[in-house]
Amino acid sequence: MNKKEKEIKALLQLLDDPNDEVYQYVSKNILEQGEIIIPELEKTWEKSLNAILQERIEDLIQEIQFSTTQKQLSEWKDKGAVNLLEAAYLISKYQYPDLIYNDILEAFNKIKQDAWLEINKNLTALEKTRILNHILFQVHEFSGNGSNFFAPQNSYVNHVLETKKGNPITLGILYIALAVDLGLPIYGVSIPRNFILAYIDEHNTYEQNDPEILFYINPFNEGKVLGEKEIDYFLKQQKIEPKKKYYLPCSNIEIIKTLILNLIYSYEKLGYPEKIADLKILFNIIN
Fold it and tell me: What is the largest CA-CA distance in the chain?
């Protein structure tokens, strides 16, 4: 047993100390170890019959996992917020801390492989969209969860990949992630109370302030193709003042912010103040 292992063992032995000051010192040192100490905490929990010790261990594991998620989300942002699927996974990891990214990728890659076999450069933008819609919504049977629209599960990408049901933002994230890997210029468009996609003219770069949008796509309605008039109608219906940004592509950071806000709204409806507080922390990391 090396010095580090001895230190960890000594800390774990003090976890059930009734003295609050001792526990505060021990928990602080355990939290500083990060995820590496979780297996040892789990072993200690399994061997113990002390309810107070078990509760303390559960709280520590939860705090370590949440702290790790915060750090990873911050790193994702600092590295340029490139991989949308990775960020959606990190938000899911908040609710499912043992979630493994490779499991998400495995499910995603099956869909991507099917789409890759069908799409080629000679097709028009509309033809490529129809193929992507067919693969995602007919072959793999994804659909919008209209019957339980506000359920928080609709905002967790692992759950969406498993049940094939999601909300506009998670279905949109899957659609964008597929498009990126297939080299299609499809981006998210954040509209109040909705989320759609924009297919950009391939000869007009997204970096320009006023990209030429060929058409819009509604991921919640099996990829239905829309024009500006449909957005006008939706905004009018919702009594929302039209703004230019509601018609233009948004950044990956804006998409993940929308995802987190969706979750906050879901948990507000259900009455989970602790989850709301945690999600606000995640929101502030990328805001």
Answer: 72
Would you list the domain boundaries of the chain?
A: 3-78, 84-286
Please report the DSSP string for 16-44 in residue order. T-S-HHHHHHHHHHHHHHGGGGHHHHHHH
- The answer to whether the CB of 248 falls within 8 A of the CB of 183 is no
Indicate the residue type of 286: I
Q: How, if at all, do strands 165-166 and 143-144 pair?
A: parallel
**Burial class of 98 by CB neighbour count within 10 A (0 to 12, 13 to 18, 19+):** exposed
Residue 2 has pLDDT above 90, yes or no: no
Query: Residues 248, 211: contact at Cβ < 8 Å?
Result: yes
C-alpha of 176 from chain center: 13
The single-letter code of the amino acid at 38 is I
| Residue 232: C-alpha distances to residues 189, 217, 220, 236, 238 (Å) | 14, 14, 18, 6, 10
Distance CA 149, CA 188 (A): 20
pLDDT tens for 101-155 read 999 999 999 999 999 999 998 999 999 999 999 999 999 999 999 999 999 999 9
CB 165 within 8 A of CB 145: yes
